[in-house]
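Figure S4 source data
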Amino acid sequence: MATAEHVYFLGAGASVPDGYRVTAWLSCAVAAFLRHYRDVRGQRSPLEAYLASVYGLKRAEMEASADLWADYADDEQAAGRLSQSVMPDIIDLLSALDLAIVENASFGPTVDKGKRWELRGNELVRVRERAVEALVTGFSQVRSNRLGKKGGHETAEKLVSRLHADDVVVTTNWDILIEEALCAQRGSVAIDYGANLINVTTCGVPRSVAPAGPQVLKLHGSFNWLHCPHCRNLYANPNLMIAPEPVRRWPIDKECDCGAELVGVLITPTYLKTYQIPQLLEIWRKAQKALEFSPQWIFIGYSLPNDDLWIRGMLMRAFAIRRHSGALPEITVVSRGPNKDLEQRYKRLFRGANFRFFDQGVEKFVENEEVFFADERATQSRRQVP
């Protein structure tokens, strides 16, 4: 494979400057979706029944969380109030469902006053799909409001403007800020996701445009991907394929060409080991290979948590290969504010690497050409050595 001079590894913090700062509290978007579901369908969703039965959540508590989400969607400064919600952390919510589905476990019967049903098997699959639908709908609402006020994602667009065609972006984020920034900069292009994805229009028609530009390797899936569990096709749309649709038309209820129902692809770290989508396995393989061959690793907004075992394992394997080759990578870590604990986590994992810690935030990093291009000049110097 072609050598990537730079690998940009993006965590949740990379999306904060553009107004997306709430990965953990996306469960408030679930509450907002459940209220919308009741208003449209005239009944509560199986997802609401699950939350009431398993977490003991009351309707009033979900309504309060829905109000918090509405405030945040309208004004990103309201993000701090989301912590008032009693909704479960979204990663915990999805991970508990994932493990129960894999193990064919049961959460027992619902607490409905009317018909009771067992929370296991296919019922949990449907509950999870409604959760994915809720997240996509909530993200789309925030995205629409942010774009309406700002006209674009300024920080993501500045970052993309610095990328070379042979650079690689590896991201843990579900959002599509990088893809939209690439499309805005380069016109109507298909994104190179590093695997055999079918790029389609919003209506689901395959696009004939060949993928171009830097690869965008999404380790945990994406808000704009749909997967067919029957024929294994994976579809992607840079314009957010599973966006909210008119009343009584639900985003996830789409069919593959083979007739099977398509499902969203939002992966939790807990579930990675058992999520056997071929394209996702290929994306992880290419992410490791890009790291193995790249002399410059730039981590933006990624806290390197100790419990993110699959990613840490991939990083350690790539780093060991570079160590054995006698060419350790130069590592840049971009964060907001000094963080000694963060620095120590990186230094312990990547012993011997040449580090640069930039703690003035993503915005300053992409705006400061002297800082941003320091590693670029180093790369050019290496190329000029006979």
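Figure S5 source data
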Amino acid sequence: METLFAFTALGVLLILGLGALGTAIGFGLLGGKFLE
């Protein structure tokens, strides 16, 4: 049961991390276009 919880936590953290990374990249690209 503990392993299932650990894998679930890792999956959630991974998804949140990728989402944050994608958002940062998206804002960076949009910011670059607006600055030009």
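The two ends are 53 Å apart (CA to CA). The longest helix spans residues 2-35.
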